[in-house]
Amino acid sequence: MVLSARQQHCLKGIGIRRWFERSSAPTGAEEILTPTAQEILPPEAAILSAPTMEPARPKPVPAMSLDSWDDITRSIHQCEACDLASNCTQKVPGVGNQQADLMIIGEGPGHDEDIKGEPFVGRSGQLLDKMLQAIGISRSQVFITNIVKCRPPNNRDPHRDEVQACSVFLRAQIKQLTPKVILSVGRVSAHSLLNSTSPVGKLIREMHQLPESDIPVKVTYHPAYLLRNPPAKSIAWQDMKTLHRILDLDP
Ligand code: SF4
């Protein structure tokens, strides 16, 4: 992938130095060999992979129409299907281009998202924006949402019954969008979408397919994790290059 000056500038902003193969490095170029996930994965990454969800306690989801974007958004705002409804400031249905090829699915709203009503804001959102910019995509070109639409108290992981209750909305959003590819951000997102308990460090190494569909899913680390563990940005950059290829973004 040939990077433009702007993309190289974005990479520098993210904190990723560009690497070159030894054989193709220009004279004087900074050389960093591409690390493998195994080599670069910090021990803390294992924490991200621990299955922590509680046993399922299904709750009834009220009958509602989910046949259009407006229906979905309205239904989310009216929903009280799980306990998260009573603890959040507001619902965070998702934002972006409703014809996007790329759908980004995170875990759940955090403090800033809960206040603003938009997913991936604050420092994590800024890093995500820069990662997208590095492959020539703006936030307005993608659709961004979360597994659950209400903030779990104290940023805990959503419980399995909460994920299950909210999945009706995510499924409806995926059906409306029919994205070309899904970027699954973080452990809760990956485990929920892929019905897996494998470590994120393992899931990140290969492409997946959304169960019962032909939509490819790329797993990547959550920007909040990347902010805490800058070396993992090299792996995330590989993920962005994979997206670039799937989305066929080269002119
Ligand atoms: Fe409804 Fe989802 Fe919020 Fe639970 S998290 S109340 S299912 S919108």
How many strand elements?
6
From the spread of the alpha carbons, the general shape counts as globular
Spatial strand arrangement across the major sheet:
1-3-2-4-6-5
Distance between the termini: 11 Å
Helical proportion, percent range: 25-40%
Q: Tell me the structural class.
A: alpha/beta
Our Rg estimate from Cα atoms comes to 18 Å
Poorly predicted sequence stretches spanning 5 or more consecutive residues = 19-53
List the bound ligands: iron/sulfur cluster
How confident is the prediction overall: mean pLDDT?
84
Helix-strand string: HHHHEEHHEHEHHEEHH
- In DSSP terms (H or I, runs of 4 or more residues), the helix count works out at 11
Strand content: 5-15%
Largest sheet composition: 6 strands, mixed
How do the helices and strands line up, and which of them pair or pack?
Layout: H1 5-14, H2 37-40, H3 45-49, H4 69-78, E1 95-96, E2 102-106, H5 111-116, H6 122-134, E3 143-146, H7 160-177, E4 181-185, H8 187-194, H9 200-203, E5 208-209, E6 216-220, H10 223-228, H11 233-246
Parallel strand pairs: 2-3, 2-4, 4-6
Antiparallel strand pairs: 1-3, 5-6
Helix pairs in contact: 1-6, 4-7
This protein binds iron/sulfur cluster (SF4).
Iron/sulfur cluster binds at residues 76, 79-82, 84-85, 91, 148-150, 162, 165-166.
